[in-house]
Design brief:
By secondary structure, the protein is an alpha/beta fold. It has three domains: 190 residues, 3-Layer(aba) Sandwich (Rossmann fold), CATH 3.40.50.300; 110 residues, no CATH class; 82 residues, no CATH class. The chain contains 15 helices and 13 strands. Helix 1 packs across helix 2. The protein starts with 14 loop residues before the first helix and ends in a 6-residue tail after the last helix.
Length: 425
């Protein structure tokens, strides 16, 4: 009996994956002829087979030892889930030199080390998986700096004067990083895609059925399959996996694991129902779906509703969009203008007015009994700040004040500067 844990390694090529493989092999074969860097992006939903397809190519170009050191034709790098320019560069460095994490190095030091190792390891292809992690809709600076850094990296020539190849793979958000940097975008060739099989497309439906039957052939070499070759069962598998090969393989692996654990020799639809409940039904995108494709109650007749539910598989739940707090417009005379609360503002103004009153009192302390300080203009119109004998403040403006004392010109100017807010003209 084959090991169920290695069931995911079973390869069933189909038209889309074959096209991607041939295209990348063609570009990689020109390693000694590239005057410009070859850049290509492979996108698609989770479970479409992007990583699996590229892994197969990576295994053909894995590292090997020579008398002069390690040769790494391909450098496979996982972009960190919470990336920064430094930790992304450190990830590349660690792949090229597993003993160097770059923790205590600066970005420029890491970059210099990478360029040296790329030459020493004769690395020709750099593959960045999960490239969509660089996309942050609220931090354009990050993915612009990262894309600019990558552009500079791939522009560096090899010893023979040619340039390297860059492969990025991930969800559709990966293209946002590329599209936001025009200089990087023009270096990329036509995007490659691996998508889910469409049940509405006869050709794709036939190809999905062929892949599913081929997987069953592998299982049949070790188990007896009970009623699993019908067209209705193929549709059940489609509804359970959304036409995604990665999900189909994981479902079949769970079936094999359960059968192997129970020492069963026969596998039927009830085993698929159990496997669906244990693995796929717990996926976030299926949490609101009541449909159980392998249950007895399920009607395996294609409908738009069932196909719409199947399309949800592999689609990540909507990410919450961070809300950005907008600042109130800065206007003169509001508490927001100086960044304090309204109550605090009142206290500050009260202290300011008391300081002004104290200064005015000092100006007239030589006239204790003075009832009024007046500034008489040429038209004898009085504009003044009056202090009564009882210490109460009041504003007097535009009136003739009998018996008013006139201060010298310098002291009147000083008074006007201090009291202009209390005695408006």
């Amino acid at each position: 009996m084959f090991d169920p844990h290695t069931f995911l390694n079973v390869t069933i090529p189909h038209a889309a994956s074959t096209e991607v493989t041939e295209r990348i092999e063609l570009l990689a074969a020109a390693r000694d002829k590239r005057e410009d860097p070859y850049c290509v992006a492979l996108t698609g939903p989770t479970g479409a087979g992007k990583t699996f397809t590229l892994d197969a190519l990576y295994e053909k170009n894995c590292s090997y030892e020579t008398t002069e050191g390690t040769v790494r034709p391909w450098a496979k790098v996982k972009v960190p889930s919470v990336p920064t320019l430094k930790n992304m560069a450190a990830s590349i460095l660690t792949v090229l030199d597993p003993g160097d994490s770059g923790i205590r190095s600066t970005e420029s030091q890491i970059t210099h080390r990478i360029t040296t190792l790329l030459e020493e390891c004769e690395t020709d292809v750099i593959w960045l998986d999960d490239f969509q992690h660089l996309y942050d809709r609220h931090n354009e600076k990050l993915f612009y700096e990262a894309s600019n850094w990558l552009k500079n990296l791939i522009e560096m020539k090899k010893e023979n004067g040619t340039k390297r190849m860059l492969i990025v793979s991930g969800l559709d958000d990966a293209m946002e990083v590329i599209n936001h940097n025009s200089q990087l975008r023009r270096r990329f060739r036509a995007k490659l895609s691996l998508l889910c099989f469409s049940w509405s497309d006869v050709k794709q439906r036939t190809e999905f059925a062929a892949c599913q039957q081929e997987f069953l052939n592998h299982m049949e070499s070790q188990f007896t399959l009970k009623d699993l070759r019908s067209a209705s069962f193929i549709f059940r598998c489609y509804c359970a996996t959304g036409g995604l090969i990665g999900y189909l393989k994981r479902l079949l692996q769970e079936v094999v694991l359960s059968a192997d654990g129970c020492k069963k020799s026969t596998i039927g639809i009830e085993d698929f129902d159990l496997a669906y409940d244990r693995y796929l039904c717990g996926s976030p995108e299926l949490q609101n779906i009541d449909c159980r494709p392998f249950s007895k109650e399920f009607n395996p007749i294609p409908t738009e509703q069932l196909l719409a539910l199947a399309r949800l598989i592999g689609t990540p739940p909507d990410r919450p969009v961070a809300t950005v707090r907008k600042r109130a417009p800065r206007t003169l005379g509001t508490s927001s203008a100086i960044g304090i609360g309204q109550e605090h503002l009142v206290v500050v103004l009260q202290k300011t007015l008391r300081s002004i009153a104290t200064a005015i009192q000092r100006e007239v302390e030589d006239s204790v009994r003075l009832r009024c300080i007046a500034h008489v203009d040429p038209h004898a119109r009085i504009r003044c700040f009056a202090l009564t004998q009882h210490g109460q403040d009041r504003i007097v403006g535009g009136h003739h004040v009998r018996g008013a004392h006139t201060l010298d010109h310098q002291r009147i100017q000083r008074f006007d500067q201090l009291s202009h807010i209390a005695a408006p003209y």
